[in-house]
Structure formats: structure tokens, C-alpha cells
Amino acid sequence: PEEMVKPRPENQLAKVRYLDHGYYRDVWVVEDNPWIWPNEYTKEKDNKPKEALGVVDEKGTADLITKAYRTMVLKTLRYKHKRDEDSFDEVQLEAIIMERMTKSPRIMDLYGHCGFSVSAELVPIEFEERVVPGEGMQETKDVEERNKNGPRPYNNFTAEEKLRFALEMAESIADLHGFEDGIIVHDDVQLCQWMTTPDGTLKLGDFNRATIMTWDEINGSYCKFDNGKAFGNYRAPEEFAAINLDEQIDTFSFCNNIYGLITGLWDFYDTDDDQVVQKKLIARELAFVDPRWKDRSYEEGKLVELLPKCWAYDPDERISIFDAVKFLRQAIDNKPKH
How much is the mean pLDDT over the chain? Predict the structure, then answer.
């Protein structure tokens, strides 16, 4: 070319800093310098939260909110994992799903993908920390003492917020299960997979465990799948057999989230041993639900009513996520007017 393209001056390069990590990946914040956005930079102070967010790192989260317009996240494979074909396939799978789901306002937007990394929009507010504050574990006697005059949640959501957030989570899963080119199973439904935008909207992410179900042209149905050995205590019972699985595993785990919304606790809040919980699930034992939650509010009563529908042991008897969306929408629309 007649004129060489000059690189950005050093003082205009993006800033990169470490944010956090999950089991598979490290998460980095990539922040553009403010003077590249002269019309937006002057408004950053106006974007600061006016009240506490209910998260562990209030200051850090507030900083992310003010700079979200010029920031993205970069997720990279942690060094403890092999850079092999299996790892590449998982990262590529997430990129493909996020790209295909761009049209959904309930799914985090993909910005780019290369090798073992994915860049995506920054959704700054932790949802799990607000739903289940602290460890989320309690001794049974302590919960009974706290609730002796009626159930009291450990989180600070209003009953209306609980119902709305339940619907938003269900709708984002339904976007995957109802994808026009075939069912996508998230396969790792947990509260930590949702983040909250500054305007209060939930967005679902983290698809490296997802499964795109294949279609059997001979039988005219989707093929069941095997997702390997199940770890943790947030799984559907059939996952511990790891065969003949379908999208209903997401529906079961979704209602674990509902339990957290209602109570502010993990479902088996008194058992800090994954293997013990797994044996309980296989034996058809479910988390204890205090029946008094039904009468604490209309909204919480509806959420309690939903639990057994999603927690059915047999996946064929479990309601679909579309049924859950319908149930929650009707609950909101049909709330009695006082």
C-alpha cells in the first residue's frame, strides 16, 4: 500500500486483567481505553450503581458496570487442561452455539473465537451470589429455628422478583431447546451460568458442556446421548447412569435453581458431600420443601407448585421447559388483584 498502516499508539492499547476462573477456563477482562469513546466516557460516573447490588465484590462489580460499554470478557482454557482435540471441540462448540443464538436477548453475545479462547460481551453482575448468599449451607436445626414462626428466605428478593427471574431463566433454556435447527441441551444448568445486566436482565452463558442433539432420520426422533460420568450434586438422577439422556436433564436442574430462589439455600443445604447427595437422588429422595412456603406469598406458592413437576424422577413424566415457561407466564398474568 502507498501508506503503511500504523499500529495503535501504546497509550491506546486495550488493558487486560484477570477476573476469575471456573473449572475449565480463566476469565479475563479486556478494556478499551476511555478516550477512544469520547462521547461515552464522560457519562461513566452516571452509570455507577446508586445502591448496593448484593454481591461479594461490590466495588469491582460497580467498576465493571460503568465500563461495560467498552469492555469484553476473554475466556481461555486453563493451563491444567490439555490443549488437545477434545478441549478444542468444547471451545468451538460453545462458539458455534453462541453465534447461532445471537438473536436471543437472553443469551450472552459472542464477539469472537480462536483456538482455545472465546470472547464475549461483559455481563457484569453475579446472579448466584444474590440468589444464594454466602455458602448456602446450613444445619437443619438452624434453619428450623430461623423458620419457627414462618419461613424466611436467606436472600433479599421480593416474591415478584423471584417469579420474574424464574421465568427469565426458563425462557433462556427454552431458547436452546426450541432452537430452529435442532435441540441444544445446556447440560450444566446452575445459577452461576446466569449473569445480570445493569438493567436487571438475566443472560445465560457457558456452553462448553452443551450437547447439540442429533436426529435419527430412520426413527424420526432425536437420538439420546451419553454425557460421561456425572460429578457434583446438581444433576438429574438419570445423569448418574450417563446413558439415554435428553433435554429433560436441564429441566430438572432448572428447578434446583428455583429452590435457591425460594429459600436462598442450596437444595441439599445440610449435606456437604456430593456422593451422599448423588445417592439420595438415585434413591428418588428430593430436597425438603417446607410446605409453609406455599402460603408465604402467591408467587412463592406458584414456584413451590412448579417444583414437583420439574423434579419428576422419570424424565418422560417431567414437564418440558416449554411447559415451565407457560406455567410461569400464566402465574404472572393471573396474579390476583387486591
Answer: 93
Q: Measuring CA to CA, which residue among 220, 197, 209, 213 is closest to residue 106?
A: 197
**How far apart, in Å, are the Cα atoms of 14 and each of 17, 63, 77?**
10, 16, 21
Q: What is residue 106's predicted lDDT score, i.e. its pLDDT?
A: 97
DSSP 8-state class, residue 135:
T
Residue 1 pLDDT more than 70? Answer: no
| Packing angle of the helix pair 321-333, 248-263 (nearest 10 deg) | 40
* Strand, coil or helix: 170: helix
pTM over 0.85: yes
Q: How many CB atoms lie within 10 A of CB 105?
A: 12
**Looking at this protein, which amino acid is placed at residue 95?**
A
Q: How far apart are CA 48 and CA 50, in angstroms?
A: 6
* Each residue's pLDDT tens digit, 26-55: 999 999 888 778 888 888 888 889 899 999
How far apart are the C-alpha atoms of 338 and 334, rounded to whole Å?
Answer: 12
* Residues near 29 by beta carbon (within 8 Å), at least 6 away in sequence: 16, 17, 18, 19, 64, 71, 72, 73, 74, 122
Helices 298-310 and 159-177 pack at an angle, to 10 degrees, of: 30
CB-based contact 197:175 (threshold 8 Å): no
Residue where the block lists cell 453465534? 99
DSSP state of 74: E
CB 256 within 8 A of CB 304: no
pLDDT at residue 7, rounded to an integer: 62
Dig out the grid coordinates for 31 from the structure. 478494556
Given strand 25-31, what is the order of strands in its sheet? 15-21, 25-31, 71-77, 117-121, 110-114
